[in-house]
Amino acid sequence: MPQDNTPSFIQTQHEFTRYIRDPKNANKPADIEERRLNIYRDLLFTNISNVLSDGFPVLRKLHSEQQWANICQDFYHRHPSKSPYFADISQEFIQYLQNERANSATSNTDFPFLLELAHYEWIELVISIAEETTNNLAITDPINQTLTIAPTALAVAYTYPVHKISPDFLPSAPPEHPTYLTVYRDTENKTGFLETNAMTHALLTALTNNTHTVTNDILFQLAQHLQHPKPEIVIEGGLSILNDFIQRGIVISTD
User: Fold this and answer.
1) Per-residue pLDDT at 1
2) DSSP secondary structure string, the chain?
3) Which one of 6, 69, 122, 150 is at 20 to 30 Å from 56 when CA atoms are compared?
4) pTM (2 decimals)?
């Protein structure tokens, strides 16, 4: 058996954190008063569960106190978080749902839309705290300019209508068509969303991180992809959508 060369103080830290995260399945550290361990455990778990409740308010409402506590506890002891910052806990929770949640004994009772709803709520948080660009370039000729999505906006697609889910609406299966949303922060720093369609989503996806292609070329490529017999109709409709999104601050210029 290979020798563990980890310094003893780090071994002690790992032993301590393993017990704090999962006291039922980890050895209690020696020479540490159990009362102190309980204080640490309760304090840290309370902080984690409060952050999750604030970051996923709809998800929290859909569960009883015990159900939500069980999910938070499972995340707390099962997920190996990479970031030490509380601001990143919501993202770590998404990774937990993607990678470890299925291993939980209670995951068979999870809502089928659990991951998508959590992702949508996380995206709202990401947009609400995203740094604004200092780009104040005027858009005077959008069809011939290079446009892109603002850092305070994001186009997303889901199989479930996550923006409608509530305690009174709990779909058991996805609808026939996907849900396309654009989550953005307006000029008054309020985060909201627009429900869009497949074409608008494809346009915004094409504009994401765009730095070289002018709008006319993007719309023409989109018309070709759709195999539309009259590309000019797609270009005209796309330009109308873009003008609305420019006014909302969703689309900005790069040149």
Assistant:
1) 43
2) -----S-HHHHHHHHHHHHHH-TTTSPPPTTS-HHHHHHHHHHHHHHHHHHHHHH-HHHHHTS-HHHHHHHHHHHHHH-------GGGHHHHHHHHHHHTGGGSTTGGGS-TTHHHHHHHHHHHHHHHHPPPP------S-GGGS-EEE-TTEEEEEESS-GGG-BTTB--SS--SS-EEEEEEE-TTS-EEEEEE-HHHHHHHHHHTT--S--HHHHHHHHHHHHT-S-HHHHHHHHHHHHHHHHHHTSEEE--
3) 150
4) 0.85
